[in-house]
Amino acid sequence: MRIDTRIIKSKQAVEGYITATPSRNLPIEEQARELFAGIRDALNSHNLRLLQERIFGTKEALGVSRKARAEAYGPLDDGLEPSLLLVPGGITGQIAGVQVHAVGGGQHPELLRLGDTPCGRIFRQSDGSYVTLSNISASPQNQPVKQARIAFEKTESVLKHVNACMLDVSRTWIWLADILSWYGDFNAVRNEFYTERGLVTNGKLNRMPASTGIGIGSHSGAACAIDLVAVIEPRKPIEYFNNAGNQKSAFTYGSAFSRASKTASPAGTTVFVSGTASIDSAGRTIHLNDAPAQIETTIENVRAVLKQTNFHDNHVVQATAYCKSPEIEKLFLEKWSDLSWPTLTTITDICRPKLLFEMELTAACAD
């Protein structure tokens, strides 16, 4: 088992980013017990409380993980389930890993609800509030495009309860089951919703969140589920990088997101680098059928975005590598093992059939 904990400290708060991956070749029950005991100990050792949490695994593994998590966390479990994300078994087995963002100092995060169901948390500070929402989705009985629209409307509804709106969102993660069959339709729904809410005006991007849209389904069976981060009355305005690094705006080819966003966070400043792949400045997929070249180009593109935001490798607190196949996951872990980023790898479809690899990351520094 590997537990990588990155701590950001300031006078205002402490933030902890935990990336936990299981020991290989163990039964999933043992993997889950180890993982959540390790996360519990990391949280307790720094006096942290959960802000946002994701578990990646097979359907069986997610069921086992829920039980192990409940047994391990005790009072750390405030009643909000993590995002439970379905991925095939990979190099570590049926559990790919767990990602946690936690906070300490001042008040504890408060639960946010959608109806009677916990769906997120808010961490209030004197100079702004930090909001996370997790696994916002609609009934799988609806068609995927309808599910997407309802999920966006639900996120907006929760934000309104804390006097926020979509213009306060700095980062989204969009979990899309069977992404290749309807990604174009999803983009149409998102573009329409963002235009209605003023994130896009006259075809121009105004305040587009950084985002990842990836072919991972939710344990609930929903075709579309949303996680997000919003910042209310931050110490400094959210910056959005529509063109960043080696790539131009994704909106030129129909995807409504910024390449990165930079925002105040509980203990300092955070940069969210969107899901990034082997796409050139004209929006074309490059290095077709060449996994090593796609991986190398993706990492170069991510680093170029980091550099533009004045952040560097040593600021990276969490990263996710999305691999098209087990062979590509193995290649990435073998050939790029010198990366200092705390990285969780998963196997999944990317948004284009010819893309073999995608990567996102979060970087942070204290004020």
SSE arrangement:
Layout: E1 2-9, E2 14-21, H1 28-45, E3 49-57, H2 59-73, E4 83-86, E5 95-104, E6 110-114, E7 117-125, E8 128-137, H3 144-160, E9 169-176, H4 183-196, E10 200-201, E11 204-205, E12 210-214, E13 217-218, E14 224-232, E15 239-241, E16 260-265, E17 268-277, H5 291-308, E18 316-323, H6 326-335, E19 343-347, E20 357-366
Parallel strand pairs: 3-4, 9-12, 18-19
Antiparallel strand pairs: 1-2, 2-5, 3-5, 4-13, 6-7, 7-8, 8-14, 9-14, 10-11, 15-16, 16-17, 17-20, 18-20
Any overview of this molecule?
- By secondary structure, the chain is an alpha+beta fold.
- The chain has one domain: 2-Layer Sandwich (60s Ribosomal Protein L30, Chain: A).
- Helix content is 25%, strand content 36%.
- The protein contains six helices and 20 strands.
- It has helices spanning 28-45, 59-73, 144-160, 183-196, 291-308, 326-335, and strands at 2-9, 14-21, 49-57, 83-86, 95-104, 110-114, 117-125, 128-137, 169-176, 200-201, 204-205, 210-214, 217-218, 224-232, 239-241, 260-265, 268-277, 316-323, 343-347, 357-366.
- The strands form four sheets. The protein has a six-stranded mixed beta sheet, covered by helices on one side. Strands 6-7-8-14-9-12 form a six-stranded mixed beta sheet. A six-stranded mixed beta sheet has the order 15-16-17-20-18-19.
- Strand 6 (110-114) and strand 7 (117-125) form a beta hairpin.
- The model has no long low-confidence stretch (mean pLDDT 95).
